[in-house]
Amino acid sequence: MAQQQRARFISTHPQSQALAQAAAPHWLFGVPLHWMSDWSTPFALQVASAQGAHLSDADGHTYVDFCLGDTGAMFGHAPAAVVQAVQTQVAHGCTTMLSGEDVAWVGAELARRFGLPVWQSALSASDANRFLLRWVRAATGRKKLLVFNGCYHGTVDDVFVDLVNGQPRQRDSLLGQVHDLTQHTVVIEFNDLPALEAALKSGDIACVLAEPVMTNIGMVLPQPGFWEAAQALIRQHGTLLVLDETHTFSSGPGGYARAHGLQPDALVLGKPIAGGLPCAVYGMSHDLAARATQAKQDAPPGHSGIGTTLTANRLTLAAMRATLAEVATDAAFAHMLALCTQLADGLRACISRHGLPWCVTQVGARCEFQFGSVPPVNGTQAEAMMDAELEHLIHLALLNRGVLITPFHNMLLCSPATTAADVAQMLAAFDAVLDELVACGALSEPA
């Protein structure tokens, strides 16, 4: 089946193939970001345009997009309000390294939505996480951080540590790192309260950095009561809680923490916050902000290692204001969450109809099917459910049927522009792919 799907893609995408071949001599791995070569396609799909929940390729094919730029376009491609704001701002300058009229409104809205009073900007969630780690370490005087096994917080080197046979080990996939990350990074399993308490007792951990729901090794939900107990332990030991809500922003207008009553000391929001423009923000409690300010004032003059020249540029601030004011609204989230529930229920029905031992997990407007009958409770279990070959085969077969999902695992995201017809098309394609997989023996159904 895999060979047939690849042949079908090649025969129907001659322009994409020609453009990919033309780019190959001048770009590492043939693409401007090597992740673009991680899709299941024989060569990079070449996009011509993207609007709402659909995109078109160089060969004129149109796709229903449930990947949405791996969350960067969570609110749809080219939202009208963001397009207008960006067009207007471009004519008045993109970057000045100075503040402007959008700043006060955006800061107040971030505080209102997410419950933290003091904010800073960055160009990506990776930078926001990296910068927050600096502020937290400076504010607490502690050097270590704690993460959960299988986590992902962008390209922050410190978090690339996993548990292997119960021992911390730097990930082999991390290129070019010459320092021993295990000296300053503690890693435990998600949902493991005894391990969390044991780690915190050392008294040298500056912060716990976590997604409130793990989303990058397949979705892993917190067990009932986990975060309530974890927050109490974290506070008890003088450690700070930093939540990365780059993906879990899909939970509602104020993200997962606001929807579920969590009270982090700091919060990161990236990718979709400015309608897809490169932008992120991070917020702090009053206490952390005061301690960070004091640390900066006590430091010698010079570069703090926090921020870049293009950070908080006028273009992204205008786009962020438009996104928060007119795109990421309560009504938009209500639409997204309702459609994603339909999608998740439909996936479960397809899986049940084929008698497959798979599960479906949902976090707001995001859902995922996983190759296990019971949802995972930690990163080790989630990784064990993965099957890269099967994932790629399903993704390519869906793509050949006009549906795009995230290439790295089986995640689907609904936007304000996604329709019931889009969900129906996805479910019909998924059902057909499962039929074909069973027919060719790639999957087996009970008699």
From TrEMBL:
Its cofactor is pyridoxal 5'-phosphate. The keyword Calcium does not apply. Transmembrane segments: none annotated. Coiled coil: none annotated. Keywords: Pyridoxal phosphate. InterPro entries: Aminotrans_3, PyrdxlP-dep_Trfase, PyrdxlP-dep_Trfase_major, PyrdxlP-dep_Trfase_small. Belongs to the class-III pyridoxal-phosphate-dependent aminotransferase family. This is Glutamate-1-semialdehyde 2,1-aminomutase 2. The lineage of its organism: Bacteria, Pseudomonadati, Pseudomonadota, Betaproteobacteria, Burkholderiales.
